[in-house]
């Protein structure tokens, strides 16, 4: 979700030299799925995100595809906000300039009428083994790709393994193929956890071993333990954890992760606001207590999003940090980083976990003149072979076989991250499937901020937001 400037610059040079022209070069495309012949190459164009969707991995796969097929592939990348505006404007104009489009999940209800369903292409694929639907992580595939055209807010049938006939018989279609996933995981200072003095002190203080926490309560204990004055100058300079509490999408998905772990939801089955429930109040009060009561986060937590969290963790100011990618330590800090899934809440004999997640799909533009060729390329970019190759770029893959392959990566820390990522995707909770998602998110963001800054108690803040969201939903026709 963060974008590396150096990565973006290097990728721009790579794409300019190898796989594309500028976005304003609108030479007409066309053709079939087979490789073009003659000197006049056919062109496929992809509208894609920058680093947040693994553009470097896609660029590499595109170059291989060009060499194998003879197609010329142009990849035009934009940062998230610019990409969203570009996608919406291209489709509103019914432009066929781009054949494939990167799609963030919450966009689908607003643009589904402009997308080409993929189900028929999957059924008639000349390379049926390439798609291997059962190899996708089911939860990620269902959340990203499976929608009803006339009712995109409807959740798809749940299944542990993707079954095309079950999807179709339930009235759904496949609208994209998942190529990159994001889910909330925790990076932590393994060197601090393994330190013998820390382990003994923690054992004496909490009467249990210092280990990766399974529940939010255990996580808080560890965060309290590591919040300390390390140089005895009277000021706390090490904190237990980070939170992304800025009034932005970051605090919404933070709160949603806590809410889901307590067994709550943003909406009920009738799309009525449900986040002002008992579970919602507990989630918000727990979230706020880490900042205001226990003070286990750095003082700037109310201004943090994923970018600031990365900087704080990198500088060695925290023992644990939540984010949507693996975080690293500055070499000057030293130490070793490990990873584990977002902790949950114990309910009876089981632990309920609900980390926020969302995936990028790659879909076919309904107005493309190259739909079959576009599908063939999308199928290749999402294929098991391609996703295994994506591991060298640390892509957040979406296939079981790619996660299996990640177990053989040479770096132990990277292996551990992929394990945490895969386990988290299996239990992740996606966004509501609504056309006015941004407005709903902003209403909840304001409620979280009102509570964190002491303007309202948790119940009042959530009740007010629920009333606003109810009006927004009625205005949107729900």
From TrEMBL:
Domain of life of the organism encoding this protein: Bacteria
Keyword flag Transport: yes
Keyword field contains Signal: yes
Coiled-coil features, chain-numbered ranges: none
Entry keywords, A to Z: Signal, Transport
InterPro entries, alphabetized: Bact_solute-bd_prot1, SBP
Membership in a protein family: Belongs to the bacterial solute-binding protein 1 family.
The protein's name in its UniProt record: Extracellular solute-binding protein
């Amino acid at each position: 979700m963060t974008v590396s400037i150096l990565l973006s610059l290097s990728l721009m040079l790579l794409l300019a030299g190898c796989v594309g022209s500028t976005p304003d070069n609108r030479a007409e495309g066309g053709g079939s799925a087979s490789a073009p012949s003659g000197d006049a190459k056919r062109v496929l164009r992809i509208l894609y995100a920058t680093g947040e969707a693994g553009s470097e991995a896609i660029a590499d796969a595109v170059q291989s595809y060009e060499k194998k097929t003879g197609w010329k592939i142009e990849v035009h990348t934009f940062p998230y906000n610019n990409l969203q505006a570009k996608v919406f404007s291209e489709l509103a104009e019914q432009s066929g300039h781009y054949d494939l489009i990167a799609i963030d999940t919450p966009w689908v209800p607003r643009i589904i009428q402009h997308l080409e369903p993929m189900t028929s292409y999957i059924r008639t694929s000349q390379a049926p083994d390439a798609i291997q639907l059962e190899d996708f992580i089911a939860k990620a595939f269902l959340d990203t790709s499976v929608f009803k055209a006339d009712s995109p807010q409807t959740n798809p049938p749940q299944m542990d393994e993707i079954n095309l006939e079950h999807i179709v018989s339930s009235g759904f279609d496949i609208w994209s193929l998942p190529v990159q996933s994001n889910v909330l995981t925790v990076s932590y200072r393994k060197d601090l956890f393994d330190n013998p003095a820390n382990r003994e002190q923690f054992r004496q203080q909490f009467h249990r071993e210092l280990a990766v926490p399974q529940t939010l309560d255990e996580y808080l204990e560890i965060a309290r333990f590591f919040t300390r004055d390390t140089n005895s100058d009277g000021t706390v300079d090490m904190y237990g954890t980070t939170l992304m509490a800025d009034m932005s999408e970051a605090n919404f998905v933070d709160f949603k992760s806590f809410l889901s772990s307590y067994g709550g939801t943003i909406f009920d089955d009738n799309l009525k606001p449900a986040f002002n429930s008992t579970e919602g109040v507990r989630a918000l009060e727990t979230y706020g207590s880490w900042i205001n009561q226990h003070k286990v986060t750095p003082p700037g937590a109310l201004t943090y999003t994923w970018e600031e969290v990365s900087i704080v963790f990198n500088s060695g100011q925290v023992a644990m940090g939540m984010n949507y990618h693996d975080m690293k330590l500055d070499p000057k800090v030293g130490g070793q980083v490990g990873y584990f899934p977002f902790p949950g809440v114990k309910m009876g004999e089981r632990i309920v976990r609900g980390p926020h997640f969302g995936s990028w799909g790659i879909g076919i533009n309904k107005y493309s003149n190259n739909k079959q060729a576009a599908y063939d390329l999308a199928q290749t970019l999402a294929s098991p072979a391609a996703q295994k190759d994506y591991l060298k770029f640390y892509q957040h893959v979406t296939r079981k076989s790619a996660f299996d392959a990640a177990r053989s990566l040479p770096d132990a820390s990277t292996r551990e991250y992929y394990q945490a990522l895969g386990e988290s995707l299996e239990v992740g909770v996606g966004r509501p499937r609504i056309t006015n998602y941004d407005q709903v998110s902003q209403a909840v963001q304001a409620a979280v901020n009102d509570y964190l800054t002491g303007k309202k108690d948790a119940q009042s803040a959530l009740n007010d937001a629920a009333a606003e969201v109810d009006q927004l939903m009625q205005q949107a026709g729900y």
